[in-house]
Amino acid sequence: MIFTTSMTGRHARMRGMDVEPDLEPALDQRLVDAALAQLNRRWPADEPGGAAALRLDDGEILTSVGLDNLNGGVSLCHETGAICRAYTLNRRVTASVCVYRDPERDRILILPPCGICQERLAMWGPEVQVAVPDNGSATGWAARTLRDVNPYYWGAQFTDDGMWPSQESHSE
Ligand SMILES: [Zn+2]
To answer: What SUPFAM superfamilies does the record point to (predicted)?
Structure first.
């Protein structure tokens, strides 16, 4: 299930005669809150459950929840639906957050993207921001880039300059 919670994000403000873009940060509390809101819409408060929120390059936020199934082999991560929606819209993903409610310990976990979701997000390059747990911060999360969490990305071995492959090369 995918909800669009914002169609805004790229604003312009006037400064004298100049119009400067006022870009929102890719990963902020609003994106984390969007994931939490999706979690709470989908799952009863006393049950475990998760959700993800992605920010697109125009500021739009997409959310989704994973697919559970009796056959665990066909289940999908929470990010998957929003990733496919972003790709369907032909938009660039700039940030990803995944949250999980652990009712037994009455806490919310911030889940970094699993290895497979890191591969999916790699389509949009090493600067995609992802939320990671950070017990030292008041919010409980911190932003890291895909490059931070995957410094030895295998795909960079296939480019002439050692950079991450372009989005186009993922479609070849
Ligand atoms: Zn995953």
So the answer is: Cytidine deaminase-like
